[in-house]
Amino acid sequence: MTIEFELLTELQQTVYNVELTCQSCVDSVKQALSKVNGLTRFDIDLQNQRVSVEGITAPSTIIKAIQETGRDAIIRGTGQPNSAAVSILESFNEEDKFAPVKGLARIVSTNEGKLLVDITLNGLPKGTYYPSFRNSGDISKGASSTGGLFYEFPPIEVNEPSDLSGLYSGQNFISANLKITDLIGRSMIVSNLQNSINPSSLAGVIARSAGVWENDKQVCSCSGKTVWQERQDAQQHGVRA
């Protein structure tokens, strides 16, 4: 089943941790965000290394703008409580086992019955890719065990040079008439074949994620690592967005 998509028109708030150490850092981030279309306001908190943003701009665009200042950024929350989800898109090819993550989908409920989906892909061969939600959340055999089609997305063109040599990245920012509760526990896949799955297709379970201000930890209680140490671990496994 294919659904209709439209540009996001409702304001959303997102919160990020940003590596801020001085007023110069604040000024650089402020200048970068001032150039981003679709933002209505933003606040930069030097003491807590936190940036909150309100607007209609994709989180991936905001993160990219901050990273271009030479500082990393981690999304900490988006939307209202119980209104956000995420899917980490992994390759199940043996050759990618040391850096399996090839994409990330951030999903936010903008109002009852509508979602914003921000899909970022990285480290893939150049081409057209076809994302979709699947009926099952079983990724034990990669995309091949995720069941039938639940909802289909427009294709994504992966044609921007990646930070990985010889590979490419792409992004799409769309809205859809769905509810978060319809998706939790299902899966998302990305295939390089239209209406088909193959061994190179990416797959990830759709799980709840934090709303705005619901996740303010600086140190993980499980690992004892700071958010930046965890970020480095994630990047080693392929997470870039």
TrEMBL record:
Annotated GO biological process: superoxide metabolic process
GO MF, any single term: metal ion binding
Cofactor(s), names only, from the UniProt record: Cu(2+)
Domain HMA: 11-74
Domain of life: Eukaryota
Alphabetical keyword list: Chaperone, Copper, Cytoplasm, Disulfide bond, Metal-binding
Localization terms from the record: Cytoplasm
Keyword 4Fe-4S: no
Main location: cytoplasm
GO CC, alphabetical: cytoplasm
PANTHER family: COPPER TRANSPORT PROTEIN ATOX1-RELATED, COPPER TRANSPORT PROTEIN ATX1
Family, per entry: Belongs to the CCS1 family.
Protein name: Superoxide dismutase 1 copper chaperone
Species of provenance: Wickerhamomyces ciferrii (strain ATCC 14091 / BCRC 22168 / CBS 111 / JCM 3599 / NBRC 0793 / NRRL Y-1031 F-60-10)
